[in-house]
Amino acid sequence: MRKILLLTLLFSLIVSLADAQHKRRRGGFYRKKPPYRYELIGSLGVTNFLGDLGGADQIGTHGFKDLEFVLTRPAVGGSMRWKMQQYFSVKGNLFWGILKGDDKLTKEPFRNNRNLNFKSNIFELTGQVEFNFIKEQKGHIYKIKGVRGMAHKDRQIYLFAGGGGVYFNPKGKYLDGKWYALQPFGTEGQGLPGEKKKYVRITSLVTTGAGARFALNRYWGVGMELGMRWSHSDFMDDVSDSYHTQEIKANGGSPKAIYFADPSQASGPLPGSVCDGCQRGDVHHKDAYMFAVFTVGYKVMYRKRSRSKF
Q: 199-245: per-residue pLDDT in tens?
């Protein structure tokens, strides 16, 4: 995570230096005003969780190798892009999505026996800096018959990095088939005497990824974007450290609290492996997730003032 933060800060510094140098050379962002500086964007796609629960039939890797495609869930969002210059843009995003994980989907013995599951709505607010590899090419504004290159061309491939925050609320499925918020139960002993406080359901995160966009005409364009979210929380799935089941029982925990703390299979492949202090999750890695979305953008054009000529 420190490496990711360092790379993000370094990337932001490069953008700032490049923008300052561009201003010195041209006395501003452009010698001439660009056809647009702002773009409104709608996004529709999917999200997938990369954390402690579920995953491939192996010990968790906290990477793409642990991706479980059947747990892909929908996501929608809205954004606004500000074009700083030909190669750099800044974009603000607001996304909603669903994250889900389930140990029943992996054949890895420890996680399958653990039998934990969760789902969570997430609400994400982020900002990102984009570096465009392809310079925008503009044709004629008016469609004149017989004139080549009259269409406005805009094909761009970009990398981005940024950060922001996300709200999450992990829920677990109980024996009655209903879903209950897990944070109030303190499934790893949070809130008990001498134990840590219950976790906060808002966390900061770092974003990295790549995208592409293509113009349909002067105003409308479509694109796609794939981005990773590296959170600073290990509780987006309510799983982090170790079991505290007996401690929860001793302090009068409810049946739901006891079940969600340890729903492991009584006849699982690792009988007797669950005990207070035994590993429940991987405390050394924070939770991550990814977005893959298709986008539709509308460019806000400059309006030139007309002047009368005599």
A: 999 999 999 999 999 989 888 999 999 999 999 999 999 999 999 99
CA dist., res. 100 & res. 199, Å (int): 19
**Model confidence pLDDT, tens digit, residues 19-65:** 555 555 544 444 445 557 899 999 999 999 988 786 655 555 555 56
Do residues 67 and 50 touch, judged by C-beta distance below 8 A?
yes
What burial class does residue 124 get, using C-beta atoms within 10 Å of its C-beta: 0-12 exposed, 13-18 middle, 19+ buried? Answer: buried
* Dihedral of the alpha carbons of 52, 265, 56, 47, in degrees to the nearest 10: -50
State the pairing for strand pair 179-181/73-83.
unpaired
What tens digit of pLDDT does each residue of 12-29 get?
Answer: 555 455 555 555 554 444
Q: Which residue type occupies 269?
A: P
Residues of the chain with pLDDT > 90, as a percent, come to 53
Contact residues for 139 (Cβ-Cβ < 8 A; gap 6+): 149, 150, 151, 152, 153
Sign of torsion over alpha carbons 179, 182, 183, 184: positive
Burial class (CB in 10 A: 0-12, 13-18, 19+), 42: middle
Q: Which residue has the tokens 């929380």?
A: 233
Distance of CA 174 to the CA centre of its chain: 27
Q: 283 near 240, Cβ under 8 Å?
A: yes
Per DSSP bridges, beta strands 202-215 and 171-173 are unpaired
Confidence band of 119 (pLDDT split at 50, 70, 90): very high
